[in-house]
Design goal:
The complex is a heterodimer of chains A (328) and B (340). Chain A folds into 2 domains: 2-183, Thiamin diphosphate (ThDP)-binding fold, Pyr/PP domains (Rossmann fold), CATH 3.40.50.970; 196-324, Rossmann fold, CATH 3.40.50.920. Helix content of chain A is 39%, strand content 20%. Chain A has helices at 6-20, 44-48, 60-72, 87-98, 101-104, 134-138, 151-163, 210-226, 244-254, 269-281, 303-309, 313-324, and strands spanning 2-5, 24-28, 53-55, 76-81, 114-119, 144-146, 168-173, 180-183, 196-199, 204-208, 231-235, 238-240, 257-264, 290-294. Chain A has a 7-stranded mixed β-sheet, sandwiched between helices. In chain A, helix 10 links the parallel strand 13 and strand 14 (290-294). In chain A, helix 1 packs parallel to helix 7 (151-163) and helix 8 packs across helix 12 (313-324). Chain A is globular. In chain B, 41% of the residues lie in helices and 11% in strands. Chain B has helices at residues 10-35, 50-57, 73-78, 83-90, 125-138, 156-168, 187-190, 215-230, 259-266, 270-280, 286-310, and strands at 65-67, 144-149, 172-178, 181-182, 185-186, 207-211, 236-241, 327-329, 334-336. Chain B has a 5-stranded parallel β-sheet with strand order 1-2-3-7-6, sandwiched between helices. In chain B, helix 6 (156-168) links the parallel strand 2 and strand 3. In chain B, helix 1 crosses helix 2 and helix 5 packs parallel to helix 6 (156-168). The radius of gyration of chain B is 20 Å and the shape is globular. The termini of chain B are far apart. The chains are: A alpha/beta (328), B alpha/beta (340). Chains A and B meet through helix 3, helix 4, helix 5, helix 9 and helix 10 of A and helix 5, helix 6 and strand 9 of B.
Chain lengths: 328, 340
C-alpha cells in the first residue's frame, strides 16, 4: 500500500482495467497527450496509443452517445466529460439513451459504459465550471451515480464500475485530485451500493459523499475534541444504488441526522435520503433532520462568495451542535 | 433493371418484394388498429418508404448493426423482425420484442443487430456512430447502418457524429431518409441547403443522392458504401429521397402538403414500381407476385391473432425488472438480485 494522489488512483484504475480487458477504451476531450484537464489520464496515451485513448473534438453529445453505442455493441467505453457542467449538452444521450435502452428494449441489451466527469466548487471558475449536478442523474432510472471521496475509493470503485453492466456516472471532485491517501496496489475493488462508516459515533449521524464526506469527518473530529460530541460519519460513496440500510442503522442508534452535500439545496439528493429515513426510521428520530447544502445560487467567481456557497466544517459543526443541544 | 439481372437471384428479388409488402401490410394494419384504439399511444408509420429499409438492410450481413428511428417499424421488419412479435410490442403485450416496455417508438430486436428505435429525433446518430467505433476497434469487418430522417439532420448530434466518423474513418453508412417533412415542417422551410447529401463535404466522406423509391438502387448504393466501410475507407452519407404516405402520427391531418404532391409520390410507389419491373423483365409472374401478397396477408392475420388474442399484457409485478442489470427495486431502494 502506498500513498497516492486521487488523480493517480483514477489513472491506476483505468490502466489496470485496460490491461485486464481489451474491450476497455477511453474517449474524451484532451485525454491524450494532455493527459486530461485534471491529469487523470496522464501517461495512458503513451502506453496504449491513440486507438484506445481517443482524443475527441469538443462534442459532448457525440462522446457520450458513441460510448452508448460502443457499449451496446460489446465494448467497455470509459468516456470523460471534462466538467459535469458540460453534461447539459450530452444529457439526452446519457439520460434518454444510456439509462433507458435496457428497459425500453425489454432487458435484451446492456449499456456497460462509464462516464467519468468531475464537479464541485473551489477553484474560482464560476457558474459553469463548479457545479455539483449528481442529483440530476439520480433522477434517471437505469443509471448509477458514484462519487468517491478518497483515492482508495476512487480506484476501487472505478474498477468496479468499468466491470459493471450498467451505465454509470462516475463523478470525481476537482478539489480532490491533489489529495493523497493510502491506495492498495494492484487488484482492489469496492462493491457498488456500500456506504463507508468513516467514523463510529453515538450522538449524531452525519451523512455525506465526495468532498463533503471529508469535511464532515473533519467536523466530527473537531467536535469530538472541542465539544465532546460523538458523531458517526457515513460516506455514501454511491448515490445510486444508495446504501440506505447503513444510514438507517446509524439513525436508529443516534436518533439525530445531519445531511451534507455540496449540491444546490433545493431538491438535493439528500432530500431523498431524508425521505427514506422518514419512511423507515421516523420513530427513531429525536429531532428534525438537518441539512447543510450548497447555496441556491449560480456559483459565483469571487473567492469570498464562493466560500459562502459551499458547506464548511464550521457550518456542519453548527448544525450538529444545534441538533445535539436541542436547539432545533 | 436489366443491368441488375445478373446480380439478383430470383429468391433475393422475391425476398425484397415480400419484405416491402410485409412493411406495407403491417403499417396498414397498425393504422387500422390505431383508429380502433386497439393500439394505444404513438405510432409513426413507414408506408411509402419501404424500399429504403429493405434495400439498405439487404446490403448488410448478420453480424452488422443498424440503429433506427421513431419511424422504425420498417427497419425492424427489413432486419428480419417477425410481424407477430412486433405487433405484440405495439399492442403493449408481454410477448412483444421489448416485453411491452418500448412500444412503437422503441421497437428493437437487439439480438438481431437492431440496436433499437429512439423517440428522440437524431438521438441514435451518436449511438450508431459508437457502434461503428466498436466495429472498428474489434477489427472483424462489421459495419453499422444508421437510419435517421431529414428532421434529424438539423440537430447538433448529426454534425458532431459525422465529424467524428469522418475523422476516425468509422465503418458506418448514414442513411438519411429524406421524406421531405420533419413532422409538418418541410425541408424547404427547415434547411438552408436543400440537397442534404452535400453536407458530407464538411466531414470528409462521400455524399450520394439515391432514389429511395427503387429498392435495387438503394441496395446498390448501400452495398457500395458498405464495401467502402469494410475496406477501411470510412463512412458515407446517403440521402435516400422518399415520402411517407401517412401523416406524422395519427392526429396529423396533413394540412401542410397538397393532394397533388401526395399523388406524385403515390405514382412512384416503391412496391408498384418494383412489381412492374419484375413483370417487365419477366423475373416474376403475376401469379407469383399474387402469391407473395397472399403469403404476407396470411402471416399478418396470424400476427394479429397472436398479438390481440393469444398474448397477455405484462404482469404489473414485472414493472421493475430490467431497469438495471443485476439490481432490482426493493422495499427501501435498489437491491442486488441474488446470483443463481
Amino acid at each position: 500500500m502506498a500513498q497516492k494522489f486521487y488523480w493517480e488512483a483514477v489513472k491506476e484504475a483505468l490502466r489496470e482495467e485496460m490491461l485486464r480487458d481489451p474491450r476497455v477504451f477511453l474517449l474524451g476531450e484532451d485525454i491524450g497527450v494532455y493527459g486530461g484537464a485534471y491529469g487523470a489520464t496522464r501517461g495512458l496515451f503513451e502506453e496504449f496509443g491513440p486507438e484506445r485513448v481517443r482524443d475527441t473534438a469538443i462534442s459532448e453529445a457525440a462522446i457520450t452517445g458513441a460510448a452508448v453505442g460502443a457499449a451496446m455493441a460489446g465494448m467497455r467505453p470509459v468516456a470523460e466529460i471534462m466538467y459535469v457542467d458540460f453534461m447539459t449538452i450530452a444529457m439526452d444521450q446519457f439520460a434518454n439513451q444510456a439509462a433507458k435502452n435496457r428497459y425500453m428494449f425489454g432487458g435484451k441489451t446492456t449499456v456497460p459504459m462509464v462516464l467519468r466527469s468531475e464537479g464541485g466548487a473551489g477553484r474560482c471558475i464560476a457558474a459553469q465550471h463548479s457545479q455539483s449536478l449528481e442529483t440530476w442523474f439520480c433522477h434517471a432510472p437505469g443509471c448509477f451515480v458514484v462519487a468517491p471521496a478518497t483515492p482508495a475509493d476512487a480506484k476501487g470503485l472505478l474498477k468496479t464500475c468499468i466491470r459493471d453492466e450498467n451505465p454509470i456516472l462516475f463523478l470525481e471532485h476537482k478539489m480532490l485530485y491533489g489529495e493523497k491517501g493510502e491506495v492498495p496496489d494492484g487488484e482492489f475493488t469496492i462493491p457498488l451500493g456500500v456506504a463507508n462508516v468513516t467514523r463510529k459515533g453515538t450522538q449524531c449521524t452525519i451523512v455525506s459523499y465526495s468532498r463533503m464526506a471529508n469535511r464532515s469527518l473533519e467536523a466530527a473530529k473537531k467536535m469530538a475534541e472541542k465539544d465532546g460530541i460523538d458523531c458517526e460519519v457515513i460516506d455514501l460513496r454511491c448515490l445510486q444504488p444508495l446504501d440506505i440500510d447503513c444510514v438507517l442503522d446509524s439513525v436508529r442508534k443516534t436518533g439525530k441526522v445531519v445531511l451534507v452535500s455540496e449540491a444546490y439545496r433545493n431538491a438535493n439528493i439528500m432530500c431523498e435520503v431524508a425521505m427514506r429515513i422518514n419512511e423507515h426510521a421516523f420513530d427513531y428520530l429525536d429531532a428534525p433532520m438537518q441539512r447543510v447544502c450548497g447555496a441556491d445560487t449560480p456559483i459565483p467567481m469571487s473567492p469570498t462568495l464562493e466560500d459562502e456557497v459551499i458547506p464548511t466544517a464550521e457550518k456542519i459543526c453548527k448544525a450538529v451542535r444545534n441538533l445535539v443541544n436541542h436547539k432545533v | 433493371m436489366a443491368k441488375n439481372k445478373t446480380k439478383h437471384t430470383k429468391d433475393g428479388l422475391r425476398k425484397y418484394l415480400r419484405l416491402m409488402i410485409s412493411i406495407r401490410q403491417f403499417e396498414d394494419k397498425v393504422f387500422e388498429l390505431l383508429a380502433r384504439d386497439v393500439i394505444k399511444g404513438a405510432s409513426h408509420v413507414y408506408a411509402g418508404q419501404e424500399a429504403v429499409a429493405v434495400g439498405a438492410c439487404a446490403a448488410i450481413g448478420e453480424k452488422d448493426y443498424i440503429t433506427s428511428t421513431h419511424r422504425g417499424h420498417g427497419h425492424c421488419i427489413a432486419r428480419g423482425g417477425k410481424l407477430k412479435f412486433m405487433l405484440a410490442e405495439l399492442c403493449g403485450k408481454a410477448t412483444g420484442y421489448c416485453r411491452g416496455r418500448g412500444g412503437s417508438m422503441h421497437i428493437a430486436d437487439v439480438r438481431a443487430g437492431n440496436l433499437g428505435a429512439t423517440g428522440i429525433v437524431g438521438g441514435n446518430i451518436p449511438v450508431g456512430t459508437g457502434a461503428a467505433l466498436a466495429c472498428k476497434l474489434r477489427g472483424e469487418g462489421q459495419v453499422t447502418l444508421c437510419f435517421f430522417g431529414d428532421g434529424a439532420c438539423n440537430n447538433g448530434v448529426f454534425h458532431e457524429s459525422l465529424n467524428m466518423a469522418g475523422r476516425w474513418g468509422l465503418p458506418i453508412v448514414y442513411c438519411l431518409e429524406n421524406n421531405l417533412y420533419g413532422m409538418s415542417v418541410s425541408v424547404d422551410v427547415a434547411c438552408a441547403v436543400q440537397d442534404l447529401y452535400m453536407r458530407s463535404s464538411s466531414y470528409d466522406m462521400p455524399g450520394v443522392p439515391v432514389d429511395g423509391q427503387n429498392v435495387l438502387e438503394v441496395k446498390e448504393a448501400v452495398e457500395k458504401a458498405v464495401g467502402r466501410a469494410r475496406a477501411g475507407d470510412g463512412p458515407t452519407l446517403l440521402e435516400l429521397k422518399t415520402y411517407r404516405y401517412r401523416g406524422h402520427s395519427r392526429s396529423d391531418p396533413r394540412k401542410y402538403r397538397t393532394k397533388e404532391e401526395e399523388q406524385y409520390w403515390h405514382d412512384r410507389d416503391p412496391i408498384t414500381l418494383f412489381e412492374a419491373n419484375l413483370l417487365k423483365e419477366e423475373l416474376m409472374s403475376e401469379a407469383e407476385i399474387k402469391e407473395v401478397h397472399d403469403d404476407v396477408t396470411k402471416e399478418m392475420a396470424e400476427a394479429e391473432d397472436f398479438a390481440l388474442n393469444q398474448s397477455p399484457y405484462p404482469d404489473p409485478k414485472e414493472l421493475y425488472e430490467d431497469v438495471y442489470k443485476g439490481w432490482i427495486q426493493g422495499e427501501r431502494g435498489l437491491v442486488r438480485i441474488p446470483e443463481n
